[in-house]
Amino acid sequence: MPFTTSRGPFPATRMRRLRASAFARDLVRETALSPADFIFPVFVLEGSNQREAVPSMPGIERLSIDLLVAQAREVASLGIPALALFPVVPAERKSLDASEAWRSDGLVQRTVAALKDAVPELGVLTDVALDPYTTHGQDGIIDEAGYVLNDVTSEALVRQALSHAEAGADVVAPSDMMDGRIGAIRQELEAQGHSNTLIMSYAAKYASSYYGPFRDAVGSAGNIKGGNKHSYQMDPGNSDEALHECALDLAEGADMIMVKPGMPYLDIVRRVKDELKVPTFAYQVSGEYAMHKAAFQQGWLSQEAVMLESLLAFKRAGCDGILTYFAVEAAKALQ
Ligand code: PBG
C-alpha cells in the first residue's frame, strides 16, 4: 500500500530545509575554526639535537632549542599565530627559591630569544609560574608547613615575567594563581619600558586532575609536595568565583584571560564571555589531549572528526582562541 499523508497542516517551519544541502549549511553556520584560533604549547629541553617523546601525550615531543626553532617555522607556516613555551628544567637547577626562573640566560629566556630571532612573526607566550623550578613542584615559594606564600611568590613572579619580557616574549602568561600578581607584573613591566608586553592571565585555573600528563612532560610529576595545589587553584565546584577572578585580573591589567582546563569548563567560558566581553581563551589541557589520543589509538573514535569537533566546541562556547596540543594537526586538517 502506498504511503500517503493527508494534505496539511504542514509544519510552518522545517528546520531540516537548511540542513539539506552543503551550501546552505555553509551559509548559516554560526561558528567556524581556523588555524588562527590556535596557540600551540611546546616543551623545550637543554642541549642540541635532543628530542624526547612524552609517553602520556602521543605525538608530543620535548625538543631542544634548535629543533624547536625548526618546528616553530612549520607552526608559523600553518597560520598558527603563537606558541606557549614550557621548560623542562634539569633537576640540578631546581631549588627552594626557584631563582633559576629569572636568570637572564635561563632555558626559557634563551629559547624566547632564539624563536624571536628566527621566526619573528610568530607570537611567543611564556608561562609565569615557579613549578618547573622548585624542588617541591609547587608553583610558588613555600613556608616550613609547605604553604605557598602569596606575596613572596608574587615578587619572584615579577622578576620572572620581567626576564621573559627582556628576552623578547610577546605575551607573559601567569599560571600560578597568586593574588595580586597581575597588578604587580603590570606595574613592573610599565616601569621597565615594556608597556606593550601583553599579559594573558590564567585567571580561572582550576585545581584539576587533568594536568597529569603535563607534569609528566615537564618532569614535575610525582614530586608535588603536599600532593595538590588546592590552596591556590580553584575548586572545581565553583563558577561565580571564576567571574570574580577574571574581573580582578582585568582590573589589575590583564589583556586577555584564560579558563583552564577546557572541555569540562566550557560553561565557565560562556559565563565569562557573556559577562565580561573581553578576549577569552581556554586551555585544552594535557589530560584532555591524552584521553582523545588514547581513544584514537584504540580505534574507538575517529581522529580528525573528533579532534575538530572538540575544538569547535571551544569557539561555540565563546573562546577567541584555544591553547591546544592538537594545534598543528588541526591546522593541517583545516588547510
Ligand atoms: C603550571 C602549569 C600547569 C599547566 C600549565 N602550567 C600544571 C599545573 O598547574 O600543575 C598544565 C597544562 C596541561 O595540563 O596541559 N603552572
UniProtKB/TrEMBL annotation:
Protein name per the record: Delta-aminolevulinic acid dehydratase
Q: What class of enzyme is it?
A: lyase
Catalytic site residues?
205, 260
UniProt cross-references to InterPro entries, sorted A to Z: ALAD (IPR001731), ALAD_AS (IPR030656), Aldolase_TIM (IPR013785)
- EC number per UniProt: 4.2.1.24
Q: Which residues bind Mg(2+)?
A: 245
- Extract the SUPFAM superfamilies matched here: Aldolase
